[in-house]
Design goal:
globular; 5 helices; single chain
Length: about 140
């Protein structure tokens, strides 16, 4: 998993920082909803994929709710830490089909696409105050 996280980290360093913390929160909730929806849709056909999707949803929900940013609830973790956790979630999402033994099933494609999307969003987000535009400094 560390290798997948490093790969996501390398990919994301080169992307332009154009997603604000507020927009990142909206995208996180959309990804959370997508994981839940696909978990429900996979349930009858592929239990492993369904459980993997629900697990990703739980990880995403926990991260969002614990982050101190617009859309977060408790502020237990910083937005910068949220970004590092997102890299880990992206790597885990990509690895789950292989880890759980459904990498050859059509459902595996969803996890690979979702991991790429999460990696891209993470790479384009203004996580540190230095990266943020002045209008987002307080967020």
């Amino acid at each position: 998993m560390a290798l997948a996280q490093q790969a996501v980290g390398l990919m994301t360093k080169k992307l332009p920082k154009m997603i604000s913390p507020r927009t990142h929160a909206i995208i996180d909730y959309a990804m959370l909803g997508t994981f839940i929806l696909m978990g429900a849709l996979f349930w009858k056909k592929n239990k492993k994929a369904s459980i993997a999707a629900f697990s990703c949803a739980a990880a995403e929900a926990t991260t969002v709710l614990l982050t101190g940013f617009p859309g977060g609830v408790t502020g237990v973790i910083s937005f910068e830490t949220h970004g590092r956790i997102d890299c880990t979630i992206a790597g885990a999402t990509a690895a789950l089909p292989n880890t759980l033994g459904f990498s050859d099933d059509p459902e595996a494609r969803f996890f690979r696409i979702q991991a790429l999307a999460l990696g891209a969003v993470t790479g384009m987000t203004e996580f540190t105050p230095e990266q943020r535009k002045p209008e987002y400094q307080a967020a």
